[in-house]
Amino acid sequence: MKYQYTTAWVLSGGFNLPKDSDEISLFSSENKQFYLTNKPDNLLNNVDIYYALGNMALIGGIGESETGNVRQAALDEQIDNIREARSKKIGQRTVLIFQTTDEIDIQLKGKQFEYENFAVSFEQIDTGHFNKLHKPEIDTMKIALTCQSDHPIAFEYLTSGFNFLSETKKTIFNFSFSMSNISGYVSTPLIEEFVSNIGAMYAGLKDETSLASVYRLFARMTEHDSDNQRAYLAGWTAFERLINKTFSKCEQTFLQPFLQSDQSELRGIFLDRIQDVMKMRYRLKDKFIAITAVLFPSISGAEAESLVKDFARLKAFKDDISHGNPVSENSLPVSELASMLRKYLKARTESDI
Description:
The chain has helices at residues 45-59, 72-90, 128-148, 192-207, 212-222, 228-259, 264-278, 284-295, 301-322, 334-350, and strands spanning 2-12, 14-16, 23-28, 32-37, 63-64, 69-70, 94-103, 112-114, 118-121, 154-165, 171-174, 187-189. It has 353 residues and is α+β, with helices and mostly antiparallel strands. It has two domains: 2-207, no CATH class; 228-350, no CATH class. The strands form three sheets. It has an eight-stranded mixed β-sheet with strand order 3-4-7-1-10-11-9-8, with helices on both faces. Strands 2-12 form a two-stranded parallel ribbon. It has a two-stranded antiparallel sheet with strand order 5-6. Helix 1 (45-59) crosses helix 2 (72-90), helix 5 (212-222) runs antiparallel to helix 6 (228-259) and helix 6 packs across helix 8 (284-295). The longest helix has 32 residues, at 228-259.
């Protein structure tokens, strides 16, 4: 059976849409799409109907399925209330929306209540399955957006919903028996170049599966409900993993200039011995220096030295937390860490390693 799943996140910071555009497609394939919009009502129409029907079922019924008559006035009122509340929550911010249509191995065996434009079923289905299934894709797009922004972005969960499609393509809204409760940033103008870059970066990140844990942790860092300490630790863990994974790919590239001189064979023997001895002894700072040299070959010596100093300072905050030293959450440089992580992740995805 086919299903449709939609989820939405509000961006604080990041991008503003052009004045002449309410909606921009960031990525589109045969069965999934990502959009940025400041008017999400059309894209979230089925989600709104889903929650509106849920409210109606709880407070007085949907209508007579035998005649196909839904209580349309009540449904419209519920949808209006949902959209009004959402509009107040969003304000002037931009919304990231993910939509997908795919197949799932499931059969709705219970009775369906048929209405003119849709059907309703009541079966126990784990709706969290859809959130977990598509979370990696959504996290990847968050990172693509973050890497293309000059400013920090925080993502605040807005809503999500799913529905099935019958063989005749009629929308079926399913409600589980244990239905859950219904319930200062700087932005960059979003120009065509950024849209193209975001789509390309999403495609590149999606294919780089070895960095999946980095994306997941970085996405957790950007989510709006993170407290500063949790956000910092998530970001630092992501950065550590990125450094380690990148170093394993570029160690030979970093050391290659050592071999490009007289007696290269002897130098190679010597280097093999050094690498064997140091294999388990490299410090994180050593690896950071090596990947900086490979990822940013054209930066000045002063800029390279500044990056190393910034890294050491950011690491000191993490060490204080790990050692139980008192650290004020307000003093944690979360945005600075996010900026450095964004810089190195972007460089990694654009490199040939």
